[in-house]
Amino acid sequence: MSRIGKKPVALPKGVTAEIKGQTIEVKGPKGTRSFTATDDVTLALEDGSVKVTPRGASKRARQQWGMTRSMVENLTVGVSTGFKKELEIQGVGYRASMQGKTLKLALGYSHDVNFETPEGVTITAPKQTEIVVEGIDQQLVGQVAANIREWRQPEPYKGKGIRYKGEVVFRKEGKKK
Fold this sequence. Notes:
The chain has 2 helices and 13 strands. The chain is α+β, with helices and mostly antiparallel strands and 177 residues long. It has 2 domains: 9-81, Ribosomal protein L6 (Outer Surface Protein A, domain 3, Alpha-Beta Complex), CATH 3.90.930; 83-164, Outer Surface Protein A, domain 3. The strands form 4 sheets. A 4-stranded antiparallel beta sheet has the order 11-12-7-13, covered by helices on one side. A 3-stranded antiparallel beta sheet has the order 1-6-5. It has a 3-stranded antiparallel beta sheet with strand order 2-3-4, with helices on one face. The protein is elongated.
């Protein structure tokens, strides 16, 4: 029995869900998202919540049960409150700024790095050392944040680079004489 799958997904105020076959479409104040479930599970709307049930006792049906419920919950959270990843930049001379839809990063290279904001995501730089990535698609927000971080990952000796807010970087001791 799936502990995650058996919980119904409550729809917050202002969020509506519509089920057509195996596809669920969730509408909210931030936008509209949809997800198509596999044939191993059944989706049902019951008194203001979405219930996911497996169609059999096979291992695949049980796996899809919990995964589908998590996907539906992520849709509802995305269209109601949205997802956010915060990055912080550490290092002398490292900074970020927005110019239109382009994120300009000065990361110690001989040139500035220009990162184009993809569709469905908003990037802001409230300070020169902070970047905030927001959107309604959790996977897309996380992927964009990872792509930005990839330009200069935190290194273990001085800790310079782009890191997630609150991330702890294991520091190494330098050379000894």
